[in-house]
Amino acid sequence: MTATHQTVAPEIASQAPRDNLTLSPVVRVLIVDDDPALRKILSVMLSAGAFLCRTSTTGEEALALLERHAFDIVISDLHMPGISGMDLLIEVRQRYPNLAFLMVTGEDETRIGVRAMQLGADDYLLKPFDVDVVLGSLHRALQKKKLEREVHEYRLHLEEMVSERTQQLQTALRQTERSYEDTLEALGAAIDLRDGPTAGHSRRVFLYSMELAKTIGGLDHQMRSIAMGAWLHDIGKLATPDRILLKPGPLTDPEWEIMRRHARIGYDLVKSISFLAGAAEIVLTHHERFDGSGYPQGLRAEEIPFGARIFAVADTLDAMTSDRPYRAALPLQAARDVIERGAGILFDPLAAAAFLRVPKETWSIIARGTAAVEPSAVLAAGTIRVLGALLVSPPDSAQ
Ligand SMILES: [Fe+2]
């Protein structure tokens, strides 16, 4: 049996001094009580104010009404057959957190009223009712909910603002990094242009190193460092005098000493740029050799950063398969033989093995297609997966 009852206040303005409700023109109240007398009393009490009241005899019926209609507040008796007032409160709190809830208790049930408030009721009303107390309590409950909504909305707005500002900062940071990358890309190109006999060397070793890193796998977090380290490895040569850098004949010992300085000069140039710290290490160690025979520090094996050990293989591959003033480019097989023989001696065995796993034609395709891939695009890619799509090697080369 449904026992809903509805009353609407005819004059809202006349109630302003008493309840001072400013939330909405009409406050929608759901009164839940199995006692018809108490439902009637509350309905009449509220009918003089700006309230639209509906009544319900059970908790089950109340939940059904809440499903179908919008309310601002529920006033529920504690003791009812079926769903008790406390159970109804728990359900309402779960389903309608913004709905105000007043629990009706007997005079000797103050502790239960307090318990109801601990479970989420906004207040409790003692029987018998006093109209001023009821309206005051109702008013406070609605104001509390209004404030909670405002705080919630403010927090949401704040989160939006923080998210927006974070995004702006990230964009600004990315733009700054991009500016660095553009500058460094130009510097790498300048190295290639200046070092005439090895034209395109930086670009090729950069791509060869990427292919090797992709083949080895598990290096996503080092990819940018390896990429930038390979691209800028000879940046220190900008400080090497032309008479030495471009000398057609063999270098004297003092000239070699000057030439070897480019590793540390390059490192000093790059190390102060925070996001290039990993690349700087590769610039410094790109002439180190696995057996300790390299320079400038004579590091050996795992003392050499892994990116530099990968680079050593890429560098040898390019040096042997490129034209030189004193000889024509050697076939790829010659480079394979040297790298295979040098595994564990000059070259890291893992990097050498990765090189040998890559099909020969992949290296030729990369060498021919270098002009199609911009270093900045590879750096922006960030992951090996995206990098793989950028590289010109066929998909099976990563096996
Ligand atoms: Fe170098």
Report on this structure:
- The protein has helices at 16-19, 36-47, 59-68, 85-95, 110-118, 131-194, 201-216, 223-232, 242-245, 253-260, 262-270, 277-285, 306-321, 332-342, 349-357, 360-369, 375-381, 384-390, and strands at residues 7-8, 27-32, 51-56, 73-77, 100-105, 123-126.
- With 399 residues, the protein is of the alpha/beta class.
- The protein folds into two domains: 7-158, Rossmann fold (3-Layer(aba) Sandwich), CATH 3.40.50.2300; 195-398, Hypothetical protein af1432.
- α7 runs antiparallel to α8 (223-232) and α14 (332-342) packs antiparallel against α15 (349-357).
- Mean pLDDT is 83; it is low at 1-23 and 382-399.
- Fe (ii) ion binds next to loops.
What is the tally of helical segments?
Answer: 18
The radius of gyration is: 39 Å
Q: Are there runs of 5+ residues with pLDDT below 50, and where?
A: 1-23, 382-399
| Termini gap | 74 Å
Please identify the structural class as seen in this structure: alpha/beta
SSE diagram, text form:
Layout: E1 7-8, H1 16-19, E2 27-32, H2 36-47, E3 51-56, H3 59-68, E4 73-77, H4 85-95, E5 100-105, H5 110-118, E6 123-126, H6 131-194, H7 201-216, H8 223-232, H9 242-245, H10 253-260, H11 262-270, H12 277-285, H13 306-321, H14 332-342, H15 349-357, H16 360-369, H17 375-381, H18 384-390
Parallel strand pairs: 2-3, 2-4, 4-5, 5-6
Antiparallel strand pairs: 1-3
Bound molecules: fe (ii) ion (FE2).
